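User: My collaborator and I are trying to settle a disagreement about how two of our proteins should look. Neither of us wants to argue from intuition anymore, so we agreed to look at predicted structures for both before our next call. Could you fold the first one, then the second, and keep them clearly separated?

Assistant: That sounds like a sensible way to settle it. I'll keep them separate. The first protein:
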Amino acid sequence: MKKLLKLVLGLIIAIVILIVAMVACTSFFANEVDKELKKGGEVTAVDSKQAKGDKQKNTPKHFVFGDTIKVGDVQLTISKAQNQSPAQYSESKNGNVVVFDVTAINKGDDSAFIDDTEFNLYINDEQVDSYFGDDMAISGDLNKGKTLKGKLFYDAPKGQSLELIYKPSFSWNDNEVVFKGKN
């Protein structure tokens, strides 16, 4: 009877130690995941006329066209707005197409997805329609250390105050970056 009691007591102690070890490991893992999620959504200025200094943390999420920023692991440059005539066989309601050159560089270890659907253009808080002409807009998977260049096209009149909002599709955070300027 004493042997059985010692065996049961030893088994209970072993189970308690196992439970404590599992809780400790789970807590450690959850903290590491939380750190990675916070790191991945950080927005920093790399080369910005709006923010003072290079690579500042906690910079405002409002930038001007031409700035280079880093959202998570992707370094992003949006050119100044350029006006161009619509394509011959693709009508424009406003008779003008606003074009942005986009350069994205993946500074992380995992691939990143960049697409024109992650960008929205606004004039006076009203969303501007995308323009679909002869050229293809930026879209693609961006592998580690690689660069993707492309364009964004919008059907908008000339001489407007523009607000271009970028919000990554595949992000754990609700980061949204705003670029402002005129065309």
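The second protein, kept apart from the first:
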Amino acid sequence: MKLEGMPTKELLALHNRIADKRAGPKTFATRTKLVARIEQVAADKNIDLASFGQPKKPKATAQRAEPKVQAAEAPDATEKKPRGLGVGALARAILMDPAGYPHALIAEMVNAQAAGAAATAKSVRWYANDMRKRGVEVPPRQKHHPADMDEEQSAEALSTVRMVEPAPSND
């Protein structure tokens, strides 16, 4: 085995296998000192470095007289359960509706249709963003901003607003 041709990391591993005291990567100042120390330890312990560290040849295993028993496959394990329309698929389908329902309404629709669903407006926005990242053109959402409303829409929105008396102050 030529120690001079080995990388320092392998030399350090070889040293730690044959020496009594382990060494770290900063123990030896130079590579030459590491090689000298390995040769000194090998000489002290009568170790043949030429055969040391060579991979051992694997022994051939004896053939079994009886073949291994095949595990019986359970019929339930191989059958795939049919998947229904999941929350994500349902949200994506509603997002593609040209009506452009708001995200909060889509979340409520998904929760009503899928048992055990807990969709939020934020999760629906994530689905829409994921679709856009994949190159799907998602129809725009309805945005009822007061500045965008005409007189009729504004009157309809304001009809739901009710005035509340201010709380009495203790001044």
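Some points you might bring to the call about the second protein. The radius of gyration is 37 Å. Residues 17 and 53 are 9 Å apart (CA to CA).
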